[in-house]
Write a structure and sequence with these properties.
Immunoglobulin-like; five-stranded mixed beta sheet; single chain; Striated_Muscle_Regulatory; 3% helix; repeat; mainly beta
């Protein structure tokens, strides 16, 4: 429904064919959005915006001096307008400043659109009045918390399904509900739990800033770089939540929306403010990467990197794809600012392999790798290289002489037989 239909036929035109107007279910009717075209011997009937009433049998009749020919087609028009949610919204939670509702999707959910393109709208009506007011639109899921209600009034709610093909009828109305009564306010100045916070935002991703105020009666306002925050564009949403929490939400954070955001509360006994400095997040990147290393068995080795990012990224170490635990002992991880290192104090043959350093934050991930090669000790290597049959005992003769109160050993193969010491 509401789509464009093009019906074509391609006749043989020897001798030349003279077209006869198409027979349609609306022949002679006024206001029908039909268009007839002839292009390169092809006859086209175009319906600009198909309606349910356009369904029927369409026939194209052609004639020339040799006779007549015709073809026909059946047109079925399907109503793609979404159905309403299945049943009325259900109140799942009520506080002194919000009502949370949930509802079921339409029964024929898959029939009219892709699920990802379907959203919902919420309407409310004050009991005793006739007007329905849209309180939320573009709701992606099947639940929503309404926070713009007034105490003491009873409300009805209903939901609508919205898709690229149109908007459904409203669902049945919910049962009447109202906000819970407020607890008595404290007779003291407003006071935020947090005074200052530094926050990093990722381009085009959702951002939420929250601050909590003590239970006092106060007027709350937000400013960005000293200018009041404007909700009319839809780029920023301001709300209050149970427990004295105030929130500023950006569905898609952009650089021009960032800066110094200040929430100010003013009451009878004073005022207080919370400041959030919001900056653009930067994905992690390595300034210095580790390189392949060759070490002797038993020696220590240090793999070092320098990594930057905003916010400061978490750094993880891996060996042959398995994460290394920071358990200390013979292997330890150290970090000083942007410099990070992995220290192996007593390298063994089992330590050889491919090591990776991964830096990650909500802005992205970066990784560098290096291979560690371990060489055995030279004496041990020579013993392993020398075949056992080539290992022979060495024997030599030394003459033991007495020299001025101390012993000396000299080698002299030509001397007479003397007591000998045999060195094996």
């Amino acid at each position: 429904m509401n789509g464009v239909l093009c019906s074509m036929c391609f006749p043989s035109h020897v001798p030349r064919v003279l077209p006869v107007p198409w027979n349609t279910p609306h022949n002679g009717a006024a206001g029908c959005a039909f268009c007839f075209r002839i292009e390169n011997g092809t006859f086209r009937l175009i319906i600009q915006s198909a309606k349910l009433a356009d369904a029927g049998v369409y026939k194209c009749i052609l004639s020339n001096s040799a006779g007549r020919a015709f073809c026909h087609a059946h047109l079925h028009v399907v109503d793609a307008t979404p159905g309403p949610p299945d049943g009325p919204p259900i109140v799942t939670d009520v506080t002194d400043d919000s009502v949370t509702l949930s509802w079921k999707p339409p029964k024929a959910f898959q029939a009219f659109s892709e699920p990802g393109s379907v959203t919902y709208a919420l309407q409310y009506q004050v009991v005793g009045r006739s007007q329905w007011i849209v309180v939320a639109s573009n709701v992606p899921g099947t639940s929503h918390a309404v926070r713009t209600l007034r105490p003491g009034l009873h409300y009805l709610f209903r939901a609508l399904t919205v898709s690229p093909h149109g908007c459904s009828r409203p669902s049945p109305a919910s049962a009447p509900t109202c906000l819970l009564p407020h607890e008595p306010f404290l007779n003291e100045p407003p006071r935020f739990v947090k005074k200052y916070e530094e926050i990093f935002a990722v381009e085009n991703e959702p951002l939420e800033i929250t601050c909590r105020l003590n239970h006092v009666q106060a007027t709350v306002s937000w400013t960005r770089d000293g200018i009041p925050v404007d909700e009319s564009s839809g780029e920023v949403r301001l709300s209050s939540r149970p427990g004295g929490t105030w929130a500023l939400e950006m569905p898609r954070a952009r650089a021009e929306l960032l800066g110094e955001l200040v929430c100010t509360a003013r009451g009878e006994f004073g005022s207080d403010s919370y400041t959030a400095v919001v900056s653009q997040a930067e994905a992690p990147h390595f300034e210095v990467i580790m390189e392949d290393v060759e070490v002797q068995e038993g020696d220590p080795v240090r793999l070092s990197v320098v990594v930057h990012g905003r916010p400061e990224p978490d750094v993880l170490w891996y060996k042959d794809g398995a994460r290394l635990a920071e358990a200390g002992g013979l292997a330890s991880v150290t970090r000083s600012g942007s410099a990070c290192s992995l220290l192996l104090r007593d390298v063994r043959g089992s330590d050889r392999g491919l090591y990776a350093c991964e830096a990650r934050s909500r802005a992205g991930t970066a990784r560098c790798m290096a291979e560690l090669s371990v060489h055995m000790e030279k004496s041990e290597a020579r013993q392993r290289e020398m075949p056992e049959e080539e290992v022979r005992k060495l024997k030599d003769h030394y003459e033991i002489l007495e020299e001025i109160g101390r012993w000396a050993i000299t080698r002299d193969d030509a001397v007479r037989p003397m007591p000998h010491i045999c060195v094996m």
